Every structure is written in C-alpha cells, then in structure tokens.
Amino acid sequence: MKVKPEDLEKYSSAVTLSDMEVFVFPELFYALILANIMSPIVWKWRNLSCFKKLEGKDSYKKLLRLRQFIMDEYDFNLDLETWGLTSKAKELKRFEKFISPEDIAKSNGLFGYEGDKYYFDVDIRKHFGLDKYGDEVIPYWKTETVEAMDAFLRKPGYAKKAGECVSLSTLYAAAAFIVCGIPLKDIYAVLTPLHSQNFIDIRDGVLTNNRRLVTKAMWFNGTAVSYKAQRALRHENVTIISHSTGYVHCFYKQATIKPETYSRFTNQLGSYLSTGLSVVIFANFLRSNRDYQKYFQLCRDCRGHPQFIKAETLFHYEHGSDFRIADNTHEKLLEEVSDEDFVAYEIPGRIRCDSLCEFITENKIDPGKKQGRHALAQFLQPVMPMARQFVEELADFVHTDPKLPSPDKEYVPAPEIEIGIDWTRQRIIDYLQKLRANSDTADLAFYAYRDMETCDWTPFIKAAVERCPVSLAMANDKSVDEVYAWLREIGNDSIYDDNRLAQPDEVANYHTGDGLEKAFVLADVIRGKSPRQNIEISVNDNEVILMTAAEYRFASSKGLKKNVAISSSGDIAVSG
C-alpha cells in the first residue's frame, strides 16, 4: 500500500529510527520491538544450549539467563561517529510541524534538556565528544535493529555485537517474549530523554537497564551500579510508555494505551520503586551514603560480651567480600574482620545500629510519612547534627516518585497487539500482516523490519538519500567512480535476510551489502556530490542498473523488481 504524502516523514523514520524520530513518532518505539520479534535472529536463540536446558523452567529464571547472554554477547555503544552527524537547525526544521522547538528543548539533552544533572555537571557536549564540533552539530543517533546490532562484529574495533540504549531495550523486550515466554501485556517500554528501559511485570518487577537487569532487591541495594540504573527514573521526565495496547506521550494530548493498562503500569512500577524500612534497607542506605557512616557503629556478641566496630570500617571489609552487612551472610562477614577493629566499649558520638533498628521496628517508622520522619529525626538529633537532612535522604532512598506522563489524556482506542507466547514466528508475521490495515504500529513494524516485498519503497529511499551521513563522509575524498570501485570490492552479503534491505550507512559501516543496497549507497553519494542530477535505478531480479550521466551495474540476490526515479529536486517515483 502506498504511503500517503502526509505520512511519509513518519514512515521513512521507521527506517532510520533515530532517537529523535522515536520521540516525535511514538508508534515507532513498539514498531521496532515487533520488527525484532519478526526477525529470525532472536528465534534462533531458543535453540542455544544455554536456553534449551531451561525448558520447563519459569520465565523469571529464563530472564536471568537472558541477562547473562546479552551481557556476554553485546556491548553498549554510544560512539559519536557510528551514525554520523547532523545539525540542530536541520532537525528542528524537519519536525517543526509535528512538535515545537520549545518542547524538543524540554525533552532532549542535545537541545537544552537538563533533567539529569549528572550529564550537565560533566558538560554534555564534552561527555559525548561534541566539543570538537560547533555548537550546532549533534550526533545522528540511530536506533539499531537486531541485524544492525549483530553486524557490529564486522566493524573494526568491535569484539562484540553492540547497540545503544533504545536498541538494547527493544532487543530485551523481543527476547523476553520469544526466549523467556513473557507475555507482551507484561512488558512496558519506557523512554526518557536520555535513556530507554523496559519494566517487566514479573514477580516484584524487573527493570532492564542497557545490558543489565535490575530486580527490586537490586534497586535498593545501595551499590554504584544500582545508583546508575536509577538515574533515569529518579531525575528525568518519562517521555513515552509503550505497550501492546498502545502508547502515552508526555506532550501529546491523545494516548492509545488502554487507560486501565496505564493505571496498572503506574501502580506496579510504584510498588517496585517503594520499599519498607528494614535493617537490610537501612544498611543499603548507609552503603550508598558514605558520609553518614561516621555517625554509626555496629555491635556483635563475643562470648557473652558486646563488641563494637565503626560502620565505615565494616563497610570497608564488605567492599572486598562476598558477604554483606545485615543480610543472611552478616555473621560470615564479621568472621573476616580483624579482632583489632573491634573495641569492648560503645564508641562515643555514634548511634548503635541495633538500637536504631529496634526503635524503627517498635515505632513502625514509615519515612514516607511526615510523622515518621519527625520521630526518626528526633531519635537521631542528639548525635547527628544534620538529622533532618539524613531522614529526608533516607525517605528518598526508600521511595522514588517517577515523573510519568499525565494520565489526563484523550484516550483513542487502537488495535491491541495480541500475540500468544506459544505462536510460531510465521504465525506472528501472518497475524501482523493482517493487522496492518487497522494498526499504524503493525504497519510501521514492517518498515522497521525492512520488508521490501510488501512495503512502499518510497520511505526507504527517502531515508537512504536524506539521512545517511556516514556514507557521504566515506565518499568525501573519493570520486563517484572511486566509490563505485570501492563498493565492488567490499563484501556482497547483506546483513538482512531474504528481501530485506540495509540502508547506505549500514553498508558503509559494515563494509558489506547486496548489489541493490550498494546501488542506494551510490545514489546517496551522487546526490551529495551532484544534487542536480536525476537518478534512475532499474531492479530486475539479479541485476541492478543505476543510470545518471554514466551507468553503474550491480549484481543482486534479493530477487526484487522495481524501477526507481529520483529527480534533482528530490522527488521519488517507484513503479513496477
């Protein structure tokens, strides 16, 4: 079906899938998840021995194994040069009819967003290597399909497959469904201006964070890794929540997610982000706030006599140990401590942790309530000069209030993506094909999937000749004939199977491509060097001919037939 002119920007964005495009067109977020679900790559994982031996086990155990698999196989990649550069002015102009520059500035770190102060404390442009460019230059961060992630192995300097945060989150969502058998209804994709995660509604909740998983216990364990995982939900406004029933966007008045589904997500995430105050949680808080450790001491029994140790000393032992303070390995940790670090008397100017925990338990202290915070501050005040600050930070530790899109939306029903965990890959593809006529998300999924057999070619070509700066940079010091010669020298296999196609930047990055893909690389280069030329591409099964002032031929194994005309003004016509 031919894409309407007013939808061309969105459908071509399903091909390039930059972070900015996903923000402007929220349907693309779930479309990429579906594209990865349709891909044969993740389905092959189910036959790997590490997953085969978990057959019959519950989804949670499979999810934990999936985490290790992704840790082993994939690197997190945010290299500035991977997908080239663009400019603020160009991107703002492109999207001005969809969203205002002011709203973009509120939600994107490269356009003025200041949600997570961490990045701005270190200077975001310097952090990402942008300081060597002018103020208007920004990276073209494209989100990778699983095929493009796997192809990083072909790129010099990469020992693993790789992807940026949106790529990893959408891969996790697809794999959680295919490999772990977690229903799509229990997977929520969460996008913030600087990060992408999934909340998986299983047990107490699990959050994906780049390559890692964060359980509820891990969220509150007070480690540096957990602190980094918390940054997005603690400090950033959530932009999009995407689900099999639809999405909700922070700036758009309309939402397609079912309101009852969004309410459940809000409740389940809220429960995951909150915990009661216990001995373990208090120890975790001290672990992550070292400046407060000097006000506390811990006590042990030594043959009927109490002995005391400074909190910071015991945490120092914990740092190099497999055992932890306050959990069921506490006694084993104490066995590792030198006797010289214990004293037979209470250390002046320090609060006994056992006395504090007894006070908390007996008085049922809830730091989430004003009365509880006041009582706790009074208990600490005689020893701790900043007791109220301590209590406020403790309250913040045990409860995170995420900045979610308002539920006050105009809910527009959309077809739910209802796929069974026992369905085959082909059954899923057939189902989504039938759903395309009524679901923009399902339709866009095939463009993200790069299905050239059933999709209008115009969005793919528009993306190929307008948004592939890497292929243009590659040709900077080459003539068109030299680029043609280079294309004929590199590999001939496509990173996409069957009749699916790579974009020019993927060919340029991975140094391989089918002849038809190479023809689009050459078309992009010709337009970049001589924009006044008209270009025609004839695709006839195994032969591809590109015609401008000269004629260039390529061999293709894609088996596609089309005639493509790109005018000097950029108009695209496809026939055949």
Number of strands: 18
Radius of gyration: 28 Å
Largest sheet geometry: 6 strands, antiparallel
The helix count comes to 28
Uncertain segments:
none
Tally of structural domains: 3
Tell me the fraction of residues in β-strands, as a range.
Answer: 15-25%
Oligomer: single chain
Cα(first) to Cα(last) distance is 13 Å
Output the strand order for the largest sheet.
Answer: 8-7-6-5-9-10
Give the overall average pLDDT. 93
**Helix coverage percent:** 40-55%
Structural commentary:
- The chain is an alpha+beta fold and 576 residues long.
- Helices cover 43% and strands 16% of the residues.
- The chain contains 28 helices and 18 strands.
- A six-stranded antiparallel β-sheet has the order 8-7-6-5-9-10, with helices on both faces. Strands 13-12-14 form a three-stranded mixed β-sheet.
- The longest helix has 15 residues, at 59-73.
- The model has no long low-confidence stretch (mean pLDDT 93).
Key features?
576 residues; alpha+beta; 3 domains; six-stranded antiparallel sheet; 28 helices
Quick synopsis:
It is built from 28 helices and 18 strands. By secondary structure, it is α+β, with helices and mostly antiparallel strands. The chain has three domains: 5-274 and 403-448, no CATH class; 279-398, no CATH class; 457-575, no CATH class.
